[in-house]
Fold:
Amino acid sequence: MNGLLGEIKTTLRDLDAGLKGTLNITEAMEDLMMSLTLNKIPAGWQKVAYLSKKSLLIWLDDIILRCAQLERWSDEMITPTVVWLSGLFNPMSYLTAIMQITSRQTMLPLDEQCLKTEVTNHFDTSDPEMQEPPETGAYINGLTLEGASWELGRNGEQGYLAEMILKELSPEMPILHVTSILKKDRVLAGIYQSPLYFTTDRGGANLVTMFDITMESEDSDAKNWILAGVALFLAPE
Structure:
């Protein structure tokens, strides 16, 4: 993040100097001016930034929120109770850290572990049940769903994937509880293995990891959700 902020500050300062006549206008400055005019993220900024398809103004608002989370984190030196996973430059590193901590606590090899995700019934980080960190793993939020909707659980039960609701293209997912378990203990019955992407440009470098998401019952066929293109995203447009 420091590298990105430094690039933004330096290029804008040079552009300001160029417009005032104290520096010669370069091709890079012209490209920057054109991008600012068209509300596009400048190419020079994209090279040192995270993947995103947002317009410039929305992207800048996103950066402010990311910096705010990092500032609170560094000031208090305590991991937030609910981490906005979408606000991290490298979310997979944070997820890997969950497995590493579990590995040290259980004295089990890291390569024998995998992530387990449980979707809570809470959206608001201020809910009383979200005020204390979980005993194991971590709470995360900021994910959206595409190709389906999410049915909240009742009476303390976990929710499940449901048919897509008309005009709700990218519904927000509730807070997730991510833990680490042994691969041999992983339950796959009634589970849809959903890819988690940075942006809606699927595949390649956009893929972060795979999350296990519950279906309505153990008899549900995951192929239906595969054909529907169901996936999770960190940064929808």
Summary: The chain has a mean pLDDT of 91.
